[in-house]
Design a protein that fits this description.
By secondary structure, the protein is an alpha/beta fold. Helix content is about 45%, strand content about 15%. Helix 2 packs across helix 3, helix 4 packs across helix 8 (about 235-240) and helix 15 runs antiparallel to helix 17. It starts with a strand and ends in a 42-residue tail after the last helix. The chain binds 5'-O-[(L-methionyl)-sulphamoyl]adenosine (MSP). 5'-O-[(L-methionyl)-sulphamoyl]adenosine binds near residues 50, 274 and 276.
Length: about 525
């Protein structure tokens, strides 16, 4: 059983509105999933929804629904969202599924047996909105709590705690010894700074069922349900467990489920998250795994946050970018392209409608679209769509783009990969301008030169289809079809120069990214 390349995203709160931020995280992970498949690896890509907790319980009640019914309805919207983004996920986890809940209970039972928990009474200030006890640090100078915490109530409560503190020194050492564990660097430094300057408080991992019952009951004390984060983080291993992964089922001492496909997934190769949930993934999660006796993921990849026009996106301001609307107007590949091209994985980004339109026009319509369309149209017009004999004039440029793209993709350099690919597009468009095939076509003495130019152009288009496949899957398939190539362009090895054979007949050229008249207002 070969270990698959396992990629995960955070699981989205089911009661939130799918927006640009969620779409971004899923798209960059999807690009990585497709790229790794193209590079010859078997990939398992997991995404899903986080469905327990007080907010869901309250929202369901407000709608007069059971929480399960409420989640079932919303999960349909989230799954449709994943499809609209053209994700190639292999599974979709929902934390209310029996396969997840059973494994979470096995984890809790094991950690309880092995003395990682204790029960204690706690008196303090509790934020119902954030579902967490607040500490003195959360107070403002005047003693009040920030309105972002919503209603804050004073509570005395029994709960179970997870002994985190005893693992603090180990975690610092682990992160220092494994510099790639948290990517990018500045996020690793942030975590190390936090761990070195604070004493980790033990983590409260329950809520009394009397106050919150929309959660997974503790197998050893049904008066309590599990804290949502403990439940949610576990998804990354509950699905491998349900697939019969021995790296999880073994340490948790659970039988391989009947009929499980027996996949080998864990450890995850990359777990992609946003910067706001770094502490959960780089502190709590590794300690949970260590306590379970399970290996740590190879890498936590932390992306930045998107704003719109320099402001935080929020429903009340009314500036939330709705990916579905953008996709309906411009197509899914234009959306995927913009979010990956605009922003490297790490820093924050800023969406502007003008920026989106200008990239569409300059890089997709005039750049890629124009290159493919004029190359294939000239081949159709001047050579009846038949590929001439091989010529290697652009071979070195293509080889460089292929090598750079591969290197960037191996290191989460998605934006850098698109820049390398963009370099090849620009080079090929310049080549058309420099060689002027429309002039060569008028002079029968230049027939051989025209053959050479046309071969170079059509071969660059073929290679571009392969390089772009992880980013623009639909466009890349269209390119292959227009090139008259049957299979799907999802094998990086085929990006070697010379794949187009002489006398091959291409298909019909059709514009990939129709130019939009950006100046004139939309007509009704
Ligand atoms: N349910 C938790 C995650 C549990 S993972 C075990 C959660 N959900 S969320 O719906 O609020 O966020 C899901 C992901 O979307 C997070 O990684 C978060 O950082 C990301 N984003 C939410 N808004 C974002 C932006 N504006 N920009 C970029 N990503 C953002 O947290």
């Amino acid at each position: 059983m070969n270990k698959q390349f396992y990629l995960t995203t955070a699981i989205d709160y089911v009661n939130g509105q799918p927006h640009l931020g969620h779409a971004y995280e899923k798209i960059i992970t999807d690009v990585m999933a497709r790229a790794n498949r193209s590079l010859g690896r078997t990939v398992f890509f997991l995404t899903g929804n986080d469905e327990h907790g007080q907010k869901v319980q309250q929202a369901a009640m407000a709608e007069g629904k059971t929480p399960q019914h409420y989640c079932d309805k919303l999960a349909v919207i989230w799954k449709a969202f994943a499809e609209k983004l053209n994700l190639s996920n292999n599974d979709y986890v929902r934390t209310t599924e029996p396969r997840h809940k059973q494994v979470v209970q096995a984890i809790l039972a094991k950690l309880h047996r092995e003395d990682h928990f204790y029960k204690a009474s706690y008196h303090g200030f509790y934020s119902t909105k954030e579902e967490t006890f607040l500490t003195e640090k959360d107070r403002r100078p005047d003693g009040t709590f920030d309105p972002m915490f919503g209603e804050v109530i004073e509570l005395t409560e029994d709960n179970y705690y997870f002994k985190l503190q005893r693992h603090q020194a180990w975690l610092i050492e682990y992160i220092e010894r494994n510099p790639d564990f948290i990517f990018p660097d500045y996020r690793r430094n942030e975590v190390l700074g936090f761990l070195k300057n604070n004493v980790l408080e033990d983590l409260c991992i329950t809520r009394p069922a009397s106050r919150l019952n929309w959660g997974i009951p503790l197998p050893f004390d049904p008066e309590f349900v599990t804290y949502v984060w403990f439940d949610a983080l576990s998804n990354y291993i509950t699905i491998p467990a349900a697939c019969g992964d021995p790296a999880i089922c073994g340490p948790l001492e659970i039988p391989i489920p009947d009929g499980a496909p027996r996949l080998s997934l864990w450890p995850a190769d990359a777990q992609v998250i946003g910067k706001d949930i770094l502490k959960f993934h780089a502190v709590f999660w590794p300690i949970m795994l260590k306590a379970m006796g399970i290996e740590l993921p190879r890498q936590i990849v932390v992306h930045g946050w998107w704003q719109k026009d320099g402001q935080k996106m929020s429903k009340s301001v009314g500036n939330v970018v709705d990916p579905i609307q953008v996709i309906q107007e411009w197509g899914v590949d234009a959306f995927r392209y913009y979010v990956v091209r605009e922003l490297a994985v790490g820093p924050d980004g800023n969406w502007t409608d003008a920026g989106f339109r200008s990239r569409y026009q300059a890089e997709l319509a005039n750049g890629l679209g124009n290159l493919v369309n004029r190359s294939l149209s000239m081949l159709t017009r001047y050579r009846q769509g038949l590929v001439p004999a091989r010529s290697d004039e652009l071979a070195a440029d293509a080889a460089r783009a292929v090598q750079d793209t591969r290197q960037h993709l191996e290191q989460f350099g998605l934006q850098a990969a698109l820049l390398s690919i963009g370099g090849l597009i620009t080079r090929a468009n310049q080549y058309v301008d420099q060689t002027a095939p429309f002039k060569l076509a008028k002079d029968p003495a230049q027939s051989e030169r025209l053959d050479q130019v046309l071969y170079n152009l059509v071969e660059v288009c073929r290679i571009l289809a392969i390089l772009l496949n992880p980013f623009l899957p639909d466009t890349s398939i269209k390119m292959y079809q227009q090139l008259g190539l049957g299979e799907v362009p999802a094998d990086f090895q085929r990006a070697a120069w010379g794949g187009m054979t002489a006398a091959h007949r291409i298909g019909t050229p059709t514009p990939l990214f129709p130019r939009k008249d950006l100046e004139s207002p939309k007509r009704a």
